[in-house]
Amino acid sequence: MSMWEPFSEPARLAIVGAQEAAMELGDRFIGDEHLLCGLAAGRSDPAAISLAEAGVTPDRLKNAIVTRRRQPAPSDSPATEFVFTPRAKRVIERAFEKARERNEQFIGAGHFLLGLIGDPNNSASTLLTQMGVDLELLAASTAAAMDVDAQSAPRPVIGATRAAETKAPGTWEHFSPAARASTAAAHAEAQRFGAMITAAHLLAGIVSDEDNAVAATLERHRVSHEKVRAVLESADATFHAQTEMTFAPEAKRVIDLAFGKAKSLKDGYIGTKHLLLGMIDDGTNSGTDALKALNVNIAQLRNDLLELNTGK
Fold first, then answer.
1. 175-307 falls under which CATH superfamily?
2. Where in the chain is the domain with CATH 1.10.1780.10?
3. How far apart, in whole angstroms, are the C-alpha atoms of residue 207 and residue 177?
4. What is the DSSP string of 171-212?
5. Pairwise CA distance, residues 68 & 77, whole Å
6. What is the number of other CB atoms lying within 10 angstroms of the CB of residue 96?
7. 22: Cβ–Cβ under 8 A, 6 or more apart, which residues?
8. pLDDT tens column, 115-168
């Protein structure tokens, strides 16, 4: 099953829209305010409809962001390097929580919006409040639109014919929030090159999360997000251009090994630790190649990971 199958098409387009908003604003990161722009750029999904009814448009949002920063929007040389901020990753995590609360098996743009405005202290919620939007009313209208949308046009999610598969090892629901966020960051890295998601992109996604114990372990081995990116940029472009969220065969091997590693360690989740251990145990992928290029003692890194006691 595709790792991105639980995401509806509007949710995927919102992430793409967030990247486009970041480029227009000249930012080298994707924050919660960019996700809000991506949601507002939608067409007929509950999040876009609710935002439009509240008078929130992509242009108004971008102007509000520029005004808040007190600097003009750049007119040329847009940024092409992106990383999800911790707050943006938390929005993705909360979207999964909202879907579980509603007993829904897909992650839609509405879940993103509910997760975003559920934190009144983030940049996006502050922008909406400054624009005169009542967050409680917006949440209520979004939830109501989602109810109508679910009844009139149910999403083709993990279907009844695959019900047994949703509980089997290998499904997205077993991933920890940090592992999900790291995979989303890996996709953003891959899009910079128009490539499939490789093991090296997974490595870049893992090390991009500063609050992750596994990323901290990599940092102790002198593996930083910037260094992994440098290795990616210097590598030969041997991957086929992709426009969809597609995993390269080596990344699929790493994920399969991660599930096996979690099972052998008797962990009830798939975390970034398991992804990195799967990468190391595979040994013949671009992720381990990047670690070797950075002169990492892989055996010692593996031992350090096994000593970690983390739910991430």
1. Clp, N-terminal domain (1.10.1780.10)
2. 9-160, 175-307
3. 15
4. SGGGB-HHHHHHHHHHHHHHHHHT--B-HHHHHHHHHT-TT-
5. 22
6. 18
7. 28, 29, 30, 31, 34, 79, 82
8. 998 888 888 998 899 889 989 889 888 888 887 766 544 333 323 223 222 232
